[in-house]
Amino acid sequence: MSAASGARARPDTLELVTGMLVMGVLIALVVLAMAGRHHKGGDGYPLRAVFSQIDGLDVGADVRLAGITIGHVTSETVDPKDFRARVIFTVRKDVSLPDDSAAIVTSDSLLGGKYIALSPGGSDAMLKPGAVMVQTQGSISLEQLLSKFIFSVTDNLPKSKGTAPKAGDAGP
Predict the structure, then answer these.
(1) Which of 34, 70, 98, 146 lies at a C-alpha separation of 20 to 30 Å from 44?
(2) Domains of the chain: total
């Protein structure tokens, strides 16, 4: 009986070590994934923008210029006076934006996350750190667009009562 218990102890130890190794790898992957999501606030200068709505825009979201990530959203708050979303984001120090540039909340794809797209203006004066971008466009809600489309289609359909041509009617 001692030979049987000795043979069983070896596979149990192997399973335990294998399980601990797998758990260690999973924990390391989670740590790496979380570390990749956090962006340092000191990698650029801060700019501010005020939007009517920012549905789906999160802290840490990209700020892009011409499709290239040049910063990240660092803060989101609601102004208690006008109930608009105030967003603070960073822009790389080597990127200077004209003071008439626009900030637009847009999405990667239909199901993708939101980001701020910057559209540079034509002014000779540049935005200074901490400046407020006055030309903004909030996010467009996919649900609102779909509901408008559905209601416009259903409103244009002929009503089922009295609008269908009768069998004996001849067309012009």
Answers:
(1) 34
(2) 1
